[in-house]
Amino acid sequence: MTAVFDTTPTASADDPTTPMPLASWPARAGAITVDILPGLGVIVTTALLALTAPADGWVRWMFIVALAVTFFLMAANRLVLPVATGWTLGRALFGIAVRRADGRPVGVLRVTGRELAHLLDTLAVFVGWLWPLWDRRRRTFADLLAGTEVYRVERPQRDMRRAVATVLVAAAVASVAAVGLGYALVYRHERAVDTAREQVAAQGPRIVEQMLSYGADTIVDDFARAQALTTDGYRPQLISQQQAVQQAGATTNEYWAVNSAVLTDPPVTPDRVSMLLAMQGQRGTDPNDVKFITATVRVDFEKSADGQWRVANLTVLKKPQMNVAGR
């Protein structure tokens, strides 16, 4: 097996008369790790967050744009910089360069074809990436297809460690920031929506029952309680209905919810939920003159400043039907 580490002194890529030693496999692995891993971390993070964000919301597009920008920067590093400067960030750090088999620089088409050919290295259960360990010229499958080799050359004069550290820190900050935004804009919102749905599913039917039920002897207190269960916007409408009941001569009126469901249209928000309720009840207390009532209503709930759910609107979808007991 060909030795993995090469102790031959590096040579200048600008001097074609000087033979350039082949790059070692660890140096190549380190270079591609620096080139790919930071950007890949950002791409995976933003892709997962985009999938969890609402499909029609701006948050998903924000993550998609971040993903696209990261992919563009990775492509520029791997495809443009090698042609323009002879380096990628990782190769400059480890002092290696991709050249044609005769040592000449590679063009953008060859570099692009080589990057695409790396798919074969990966699809072959990563065997292609390990092929340099025993290939005489230390080539991957992509190198064999593109006619390229990787050589050890002199590093750039600038401090590449600082540049690489900057990129790693920027990628880590971008990933953490994306996760933070995902939590603040998606996860926390969804949790608030789930909590609102659960609260209204449990409390909504009881609220409506208390708002619609009243006794002939306790009507003043019952109406005051009902008004406290509504929003400021809906309360005048309820008061008007209560006054009409009193003028007509109120009798005991009792309702209870027999079935209910939280509606998804309009969408549930942390402070507004709509519910459909099937109601039953009875009017009057005389056993010989009790009227049994059935009705279907839609109720919009809003969360008040004190965190309590209140009725913002009540729409009767199926008018109350009354049947006299025994008939």
Automatic annotation (TrEMBL):
Its domain of life reads Bacteria
Q: Which InterPro entries match?
A: Pra-immunoreactive, RDD
Topological type in the membrane: Multi-pass membrane protein
Q: Which UniProt keywords apply?
A: Cell membrane, Membrane, Transmembrane, Transmembrane helix
Where, per UniProt, does this protein localize? Cell membrane
Q: Which Pfam families match?
A: RDD (PF06271)
Transmembrane residues, as ranges? 29-51, 58-76, 116-134, 163-186
Q: Where is the RDD domain?
A: 23-147
Q: A cellular component term (GO) from this record?
A: plasma membrane
Q: Supply the PANTHER family for this chain.
A: PROLINE-RICH ANTIGEN HOMOLOG, PROLINE-RICH ANTIGEN HOMOLOG-RELATED
Protein name according to UniProt: RDD domain containing protein
Q: Which organism is it from?
A: Mycolicibacterium vanbaalenii (strain DSM 7251 / JCM 13017 / BCRC 16820 / KCTC 9966 / NRRL B-24157 / PYR-1) (Mycobacterium vanbaalenii)
